[in-house]
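Appendix C: a fully annotated inverse folding record. The material below is reproduced so that readers can follow the format used throughout the book. The structure is listed first as tokens, followed by the designed sequence.
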């Protein structure tokens, strides 16, 4: 079944079961309350998951005393932070100092409004789409909203009147601006294949044909996106804005009590949002692979629940990947981080965007504008690009970042100096 046929079926189904205006408003309010509640509880439980996964990787238990298997540990931590004394620096600019934690948290929350998380549900009053609002500019909305989170970090560092916090805020602004460019350009090939910026259309296009995910069609784009996503969420190995060994705690050095927790919660919230977006863009969203049962009418409650479970599993896999990488890789130096963003990620994203645009145009001219033929051709192209990047053009610069910067001749000279016996003057000194 072609993507156009699938979209036509979806449009017919929506037209036949469209909600009335009143029911649509009520459905939106109910979805808002449910999504917000579940989202907040999930973010709280992610703090427990991070500590338990860290304990598992480091061969220890992790939190397991408060509630069964430590399930109530996030509630205990939240209560503790609410009851702790809150300190405020004497020289801080208090209006901005108090507002910055909320500014860093809200963008990750409201970005979830356009991410579809399940197949439509056929209620007695009409078909309810499982997305809070399916904006026609969905991905552009996410780019615009997610970029606002950097202002919270910058303002927190500036308003604290602390040099370490200011340095953390400056690092956060430079890092987020640098990698946001690569993040945005890595998705342009997805827009070229989809022909739309609505997130539901991304899912529909990848669901066409049973298994047409962009991870196969745009593998290099996914690699660029996930590296930029680690930098955008300030997760290791890109946590230079905090860098405890250098800046104490970075932009939230002067914060305490619940304001300090808000920055931690916003990091997990951003991680949840970017993982969901990664699933939607490259892994079919809520689509169940190798079957078209879940993405064509007639809709049913079973399809809604099954696709919701698949979406949760996919998102959970990437959340685990974020946590796994944190306890596996050391952080970059700051100069390495910025060099990777400007010298590698942005040029690579621009080149990949041009290559995919030319490939799509050529395939369209030869009659492979959609279907398995286009998917196989793009998969082969991405495979060639990956082999060329990591094994031919790289030459140890990315795969072995600890390689020496000195030339072979200079390295030989240094070794000869180190191995020769010392002179009489050097021995006397």
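Designed amino acids, in order:
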């Amino acid at each position: 079944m072609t993507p156009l046929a699938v979209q036509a079926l979806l449009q017919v189904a929506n037209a036949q079961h469209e909600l009335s205006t009143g029911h649509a408003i009520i459905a939106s309010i109910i979805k808002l309350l449910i999504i917000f509640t579940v989202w907040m509880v999930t973010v709280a439980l992610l703090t427990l998951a991070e500590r338990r996964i860290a304990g598992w990787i480091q061969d220890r238990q992790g939190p397991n005393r408060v509630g069964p298997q430590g399930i109530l540990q996030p509630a205990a931590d939240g209560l503790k932070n609410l009851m702790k004394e809150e300190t405020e620096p004497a020289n801080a600019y208090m209006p901005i100092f108090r507002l910055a934690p909320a500014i860093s948290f809200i963008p990750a929350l409201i970005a979830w409004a356009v991410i579809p998380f399940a197949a439509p549900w056929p209620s007695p009053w009409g078909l309810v789409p499982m997305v809070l609002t399916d904006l026609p500019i969905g991905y552009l909305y996410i780019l615009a909203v997610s970029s606002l989170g950097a202002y919270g970090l910058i303002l927190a560092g500036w308003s604290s009147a602390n040099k370490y916090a200011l340095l953390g805020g400056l690092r956060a602004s430079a890092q987020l601006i640098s990698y946001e460019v690569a993040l945005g350009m890595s998705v342009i090939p997805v827009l070229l294949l989809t022909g739309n910026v609505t997130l539901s259309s991304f899912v529909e296009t990848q669901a066409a044909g049973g298994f047409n995910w962009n991870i196969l069609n745009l593998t290099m784009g996914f690699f660029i996106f996930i590296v930029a996503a680690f930098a955008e969420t300030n997760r290791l190995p890109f946590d230079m804005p905090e860098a405890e060994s250098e800046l104490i705690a970075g932009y939230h050095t002067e914060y305490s009590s619940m304001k300090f927790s808000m920055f931690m919660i916003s990091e997990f919230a951003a991680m949840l949002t970017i993982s969901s977006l990664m699933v939607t863009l490259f892994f079919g969203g809520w689509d169940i692979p190798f079957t078209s049962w879940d993405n064509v009418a007639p809709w049913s409650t079973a399809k809604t629940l099954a696709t919701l479970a698949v979406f949760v599993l996919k998102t959970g896999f990437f959340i685990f990947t974020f946590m796994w990488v944190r306890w596996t890789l050391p952080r970059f130096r700051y100069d390495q981080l910025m060099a990777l963003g400007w010298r590698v990620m942005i040029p690579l994203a621009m080149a990949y965007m041009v290559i995919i645009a030319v490939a799509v145009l050529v395939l369209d001219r030869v009659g492979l504008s959609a279907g398995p033929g286009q998917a196989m051709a793009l998969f082969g192209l991405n495979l060639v690009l990956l082999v060329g990047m990591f094994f031919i053009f790289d030459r140890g610069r990315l795969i072995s970042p600890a390689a020496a910067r000195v030339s072979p001749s200079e390295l030989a000279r240094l070794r000869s100096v180190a191995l020769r016996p010392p002179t009489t003057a050097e021995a006397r000194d």
